[in-house]
Amino acid sequence: MPHTPSTPSTSPQRRTAPDRGRTLLGPALRLIHTGRAPTRSALTGALDVTRATAGAVTAELEALGLISVDSRPAGGGRGRPSHRLALADPGPVVIAAQLHADGISTALAGLGGRLLAPVHLPLPADTSPAALLGAVAEAGARLARDSRRRVLGCALALPNPVTEPDGTALAALHFGWPFGTPVAELFAEAVARADLGPRARPGLPTAVANDANLAALAEHRHGAGRDARHLLLVTSGHRGVGGALVVDGRLHTGSSGLALEVGHLTVDPLGRRCPCGNRGCLNAETDTDALFAAAGRRPDPARPLLPQARALARDPAAADAVAHVVDRLGLGLAGLVNILNPDRIVLSGLHLDLLAAAPDRLAAVVAERCLWGRSGRVPIVPAQVVHAGLVGAAELAWEPCLDDPQAAVAP
Questions:
Q1: Is 168 exposed, middle or buried (0-12, 13-18, 19+ CB in 10 A)?
Q2: Distance CA 379, CA 374 (A)
Q3: Mean of the pLDDT values across residues 235-245?
Q4: H or E element in which residue 68 lies
Q5: What is the DSSP string of 107-140?
Q6: Is the pLDDT of residue 280 over 60?
Q7: Triad 350, 356, 358: Cα angle to 5°
Q8: Reading across the β-sheet that carries 114-121, which strands appear in turn?
Q9: pLDDT of 376-398, one tens digit each?
Q10: In the chain, which end has fewer C-beta atoms inside a 10 angstrom radius, N or C?
Q11: Which among 200, 115, 202, 186 is positioned nearest to 394, based on CA atoms?
């Protein structure tokens, strides 16, 4: 499961690892990966180790080709100048992929949440599980073949719930897949069949997860959710609404990976029909289709839906429609705040534009419906990570390396 290590407790005497820090390679790489250890001095303090152990750890990570160590002095603090730490560039990459309701996105991604030129493709004519996952695998393999970097993993973000630990897709409403499709198994098989080129790690590790969960992970590690202890993310992409909760650096996914299906929270019992069969779900009341319906307009079917909806949210002529959708979004957020008590809410996708268009109205609706009212207002902030679903998929693909860098990078 993707995770961020907790900060080690302070001890009276810093420890020296018996193996000169090899067991600390993963925790150290996580700290550098998330920007929390820009210098060797900061890494020494964060790991609570001796300078010698921190030096051994950084030397090993540099030898693995994952980071670079710059001996030029950093900062003007007391004591001996500290070495600067950075992620290797160019370094190894992973394949990140995301399925949308109306397309496929893929990119190679380095450490630090860095995407290399994402590619967006339309859905193939055949959207059966094997055919669609095969198309995703081939799109990623094409990037791997064209790159001169070593490829260490591959992960896919899906717009539907994914169970843990078996990796089956439940209610894949956008594609009409059978209930319980073994998506993790099918994706692994598709990647294994693909020609990844000579620089891909043999037996490339693969993983799949829900796109909202992965977007929340990306925002917590690299964006608007940094330092939040209880981060709630709510997003509306090409269609539908997703949500995720990160608690103390770890995704809260429930007993089997199905927690935080916020899109099916009812905000209007007499509202629009949801693909799940109910009426008035947040899914159906605050997504792209809902905004166009409220504005009495139709999107251009020849163009991607999300950019059109984001432009509509910024159109002054659509202010009444925006207010209608914002009110429904506020009702949903208030219910989630009452249940989850987050310390920060991050909105992304179309919801980011709704927040920008009517920030005061959205905050007022949430405060009015929240148990704690205005005195307990939760900050509602816009997402910062571009292509957060892809960045989150990259985080998932990097997880084996963040756990055990030596094993992941070894030939």
A1: buried
A2: 11
A3: 88
A4: strand 67-74
A5: EEEETTTEEEEEEEEPPPS--SHHHHHHHHHHHH
A6: yes
A7: 105
A8: 114-121, 103-110, 93-100, 151-158, 206-210
A9: 688 999 999 999 999 999 999 99
A10: C
A11: 115
Tokens coding 89: 């560039």
Taking alpha carbons only, the member of 324, 209, 316 closest to residue 272 is 324
Amino acid identity for residue 26 in this structure: G
User: Which contiguous run of DSSP H or E holds residue 336?
Assistant: helix 319-340
- Can you name the residues that pair with 110 across neighbouring β-strands? 114
For 273-302, letters b (16+ CB in 10 Å) and e give: ebeeeeebbbbbbbbbbbbbbbbeeebeee
CB atoms under 10 Å from CB of 377, counted, come to: 14
In tens, the pLDDT along 116-154 reads: 999 999 999 999 999 999 999 999 999 999 999 999 999
Q: Catalogue the E-assigned strands of 335-395.
A: 344-349, 380-382
| Sign of the CA dihedral with 257 first, then 254, 94, and 403 last | negative
CA-wise closest residue to 178 among 167, 166, 191, 168? 168
The token pair that represents 143 in the structure block: 């990037």
pLDDT tens string 17-48:
445 457 899 999 999 999 999 999 999 999 99
- For the ranges 150-154, 266-270, 368-372, which has the lowest average pLDDT? 368-372
Residue 178, sorted as left (phi over 0), alpha (psi -120 to 50) or beta, turns out to be beta
Q: Cβ of 13: how many Cβ atoms within 10 Å?
A: 7
Encode burial over 379-397: b for 16+ CB neighbours within 10 A, e otherwise: ebbebbbebbbbbbbbbbb
Residue 210 three-state SS: strand
Q: What does the pLDDT look like over 72-121, one tens digit per residue?
A: 765 544 556 689 999 999 999 999 999 988 899 999 999 999 999 999 99
Looking up tokens 């030397």 gives 59
Amino acid at site 283: N
N-terminal to C-terminal alpha carbon distance within the chain = 24
User: Token pair for residue 370?
Assistant: 């929240």
At 260, list the tokens: 């935080």
From the centroid of its chain, how far is CA 389? 5
Instruction: Specify the 3-state DSSP secondary structure of 354.
Output: helix
* pTM listed for this prediction: 0.87
8 Å CB contact between 210 and 202: no
The three-class DSSP label of residue 96 is strand
Helix (H) or strand (E) holding 67: strand 67-74
- ∠ CA(355), CA(356), CA(362), 5° rounding? 30
Q: In the numeric block, which tokens belong to residue 329?
A: 């979004």
